[in-house]
Amino acid sequence: MWHVVCGDAAAEGVHQVIDADAAASLRIMRDDLAVGPLVDVHQPPCLVRSTFWETVWPDSVVAPDFSRQLADDVKWLEHVAQGSRPITVWHGDSASEQLLLCRIAAALHNAPVALYSVPCGTHRNDVQTRRAVGQCSPELLKKLYSPALILPEQQQDLAKAWHEAVEAKAGIRRWLDGGFWYSDYETVDTILLQHCTPEWQPLARVIAKVMIRSEGFFATDTFLGWRARDLAHRGLLVLQGPEKGHYSQQMVCLPRV
User: Fold this and answer.
1) Does residue 161 contact residue 175 with C-beta atoms inside 8 Å?
2) Would you say 174 and 180 are in contact if contact means Cβ atoms under 8 Å apart?
3) Domain ranges of the chain
């Protein structure tokens, strides 16, 4: 059986729960599906999506080979759909994890592959109590580890949700009340600007405040750092530090009138 998780933090915990044989079939999908364009996510080399991530990534941090990574995801999905090994997806209240489940359900359309899920979330929308797989301790994951078979009707609904997410062409996809909601980047830009002041403060401080107010998806610090750079380029805020540096190297304030 394949075990599929979204991100390295989730993989670390799940790796401690499943046995050694299963760990050899642990697949880590690192693409944060909650943000950015999905229009060519299934069309290697996924130029639109890889370009998005290259833009988001700060110059001061070594960037992954996004084109290769995204293409590998597509090839793996095609490979497992042609096989017979069951797949178990671990997911929580993360929009990215929910989208991953939907994406795999769509990839297995008409394939004789059993799909299972291990829900690890709290099914709550509020930022304080929602939970992604990577936030679960190994002890909690052991308690939650009871794969549930996804029935054909459920799989069809999940696949439909994935296709709708791709076709929506939204900048941000949020998971709220058991469904997906779509918006543009203004969803977080507005909050980011609200936490900026005419006085200089560390951008890291602002980003931390925005992260805990991002409902429906887990906004990463890297993503929010990119939004700050974009707002600065548009003259809506001012950054001090390397132009495309890591957010921890920058100070931020509102433009003075």
Assistant:
1) no
2) yes
3) 2-176, 186-253
Whether the predicted pLDDT of 244 surpasses 90: no
As a whole number, mean pLDDT of residues 231-236 equals 96
228 with 252: CB under 8 angstroms? yes
Write the pLDDT tens digit of every residue in 84-123. Answer: 999 999 999 999 999 999 999 999 998 999 999 999 998 8
From CA 187, how far away is CA 253, in angstroms rounded?
Answer: 20
Residue with tokens 């809506």: 236
| Residue 84 Cα distances to 77, 92, 140, 153, angstroms | 12, 26, 30, 20
Residues with Cβ within 8 Å of residue 212, at least 6 apart in sequence: 127
Residue 104: CB partners within 8 Å, gap ≥ 6? 4, 77, 87, 89, 115
Q: What is the pLDDT of residues 192-208, one digit of tens each?
A: 999 999 999 999 999 99
Identify which of 211, 203, 195, 209 has the alpha carbon closest to the alpha carbon of residue 242. Answer: 203
**Cβ contacts of 48 within 8 Å, gap of 6 or more:** 37, 39, 40
In whole angstroms, what is the distance from residue 42 CA to residue 198 CA?
A: 44
Bridge-based pairing of strands 2-6 and 26-29 is parallel
